[in-house]
Design brief:
By secondary structure, this protein is mainly α. The protein folds into two domains: 1-86, no CATH class; 87-134. The chain is built from six helices and no strands. Helix 1 crosses helix 3 (60-85), helix 2 (30-52) runs antiparallel to helix 3 and helix 3 packs antiparallel against helix 4. The chain is globular, with a radius of gyration of 18 Å.
């Protein structure tokens, strides 16, 4: 499967997953939902690692990965709490504005091509979120 197909399939699946989070978070504290969701997910990842024969390494990049994971877990607590407390139709568009940050960082620090269509896409994404959250 190529990266575009994987991106589209992932986008659809995460959309349904986020909707499920909203439904469950009405009756389960967001932090507990995170622990159960990713605790079970961790088991699946270990099966995947053993199946795909990924070599286990220990270097500074593993430590960076751990720090990124801690950072991400704090973000997810805020995100799941926002989902539990607010309307999904507002929280999700605002959260998904995160696409602007890596796009801009990619342009400026990774020398990815900055085209007029990409800039327009980012502008329209901002406009879409503005309209969706009104």
């Amino acid at each position: 499967m190529d990266y575009l197909t994987m991106s589209l399939v992932s986008m659809v699946l995460i959309g349904f997953n986020t909707f499920a989070v909203k439904l469950v978070s009405q009756n389960l504290h967001p932090a507990l939902l995170l622990v159960t969701k990713f605790g079970v997910g961790l088991v699946g990842l270990f099966f995947y690692l053993s199946y795909s024969k990924v070599p286990v390494v220990w270097n500074r990049y593993v430590i960076y990965g751990c720090l990124i994971g801690l950072w991400w877990s704090g973000i997810m607590v805020m995100y799941y709490t926002a989902i539990a407390r607010g309307p999904l139709s507002v929280v999700i568009p605002i959260f998904n504005m995160n696409l602007i940050i890596p796009a801009l960082l990619g342009f400026f620090f990774l020398n990815e091509p900055m085209t007029a269509s990409k800039i327009l896409g980012l502008i329209f994404a901002c406009l879409a979120v503005f309209l969706l959250t009104r």
